[in-house]
């Protein structure tokens, strides 16, 4: 299945149904009062997180998502039916942004979580509502308000505990293959990996974490070189980054310089990401002698001014790999459990129509006071004569 991690869609909530103007007309009941019902509210559009999805590809082809309109009010005080809500299923890890304002509407992090993204229009009022002591045959009604329309950017961010960073060919995919059941392609040319891969690592019974392998970065990635930095966003939710450095690059480049490139690109992309806990993992130790490894290690640590943890492994042969995996597990388990700060209640979209009905009714009453005669004319059979002054 093709992996697509961005899609722009347009969500349209249903309009509110209009109120109805109607009067009771029955035999032997002359001049029955108003009986026009209210309209129904328009349906809302929600996003719903679904663990069975893992790509946004469907939304590349299906861009318009519309909830049902509220039904209009009817005579005999019948209220129109509420429009049906629309649920748009998205993979877990999807973030919804308003394209116009850039505002993040919410993140979908748990299966079944729902997020309101477009609020349906409010119903209009039927003429019954406008009945008052001074106006017993109101002809006013209000129309339903339009449902919200929003262009949305859906961004899928993988939910991984550990993210792998490194130049192409550093051995990221080899590493994830050897520690998890994921089987991304491995080859001795750059940009073998074109889309992120996730693997579940189980260092011990009942202990596991998720690791994400993303395409390699190169110098100038922040400006779009190579595959660019579009995949770095998948690392934003990781608790730990592993920076893999190839100790024996086939093109004889200097590992220390190459390591600096990654750190620069990371800082350019996001200072926040650059500050995330990061471990340095020197890979391909099987190709060097212990002295060469020590020498390289010293150069890299100096070049990066590195004070954090350093590991030396061979992703291919497994040297020291299990120790690293075990320490990752211990580290992740020592992190404070993410408090479920994510709002239990779905985040509400600002609703512009809250006082809409009150306003309309108030206006109507004011108008009643002004043009009593006009409204009452067919009720009382009073002929109104307009005189010119
Ligand atoms: N000798 C040796 N070779 C390794 C080791 N790890 C990876 N390689 C080789 O290095 C090459 C690149 O490995 P990949 O895992 O595809 O590298 P990558 O970082 O995923 O590269 P991209 O997907 O292109 O970004 C392959 O030929 C691997 O066999 C290692 O520990 N020792
Ligand atoms: Mg790869």
UniProtKB/TrEMBL annotation:
Similarity section: Belongs to the TRAFAC class OBG-HflX-like GTPase superfamily. OBG GTPase family.
Annotated ranges, domain OBG-type G: 160-333
Name the UniProt record assigns to this protein: GTPase Obg
Region (Disordered): 127-146, 340-389
Function: An essential GTPase which binds GTP, GDP and possibly (p)ppGpp with moderate affinity, with high nucleotide exchange rates and a fairly low GTP hydrolysis rate. Plays a role in control of the cell cycle, stress response, ribosome biogenesis and in those bacteria that undergo differentiation, in morphogenesis control.
Binding site for Mg(2+): 173, 193
Record's compositionally biased regions (Basic and acidic residues): 349-362
Organism: Aliidiomarina minuta
Enzyme Commission code: 3.6.5.-
Subcellular location as annotated: Cytoplasm
Domain Obg: 1-159
Regions of compositional bias (Polar residues) in chain numbering: 129-145
Residues holding GTP: 166-173, 191-195, 213-216, 283-286, 314-316
Gene Ontology biological process terms in this record: ribosome biogenesis
InterPro entries with a match to the protein in the record: G_OBG (IPR031167), GTP-bd (IPR006073), GTP-bd_Obg/CgtA (IPR014100), GTP1-OBG_CS (IPR006074), GTP1_OBG_dom (IPR006169), GTP1_OBG_dom_sf (IPR036726), OBG_GTPase (IPR045086), P-loop_NTPase (IPR027417)
Matching Pfam families: GTP1_OBG, MMR_HSR1
Cofactor or coenzyme needed: Mg(2+)
This protein's UniProt keywords: Cytoplasm, GTP-binding, Hydrolase, Magnesium, Metal-binding, Nucleotide-binding
Keyword Cell wall biogenesis/degradation: no
GO cellular component, one term: cytoplasm
Acidic residues: bias regions: 363-381
Primary enzyme class: hydrolase
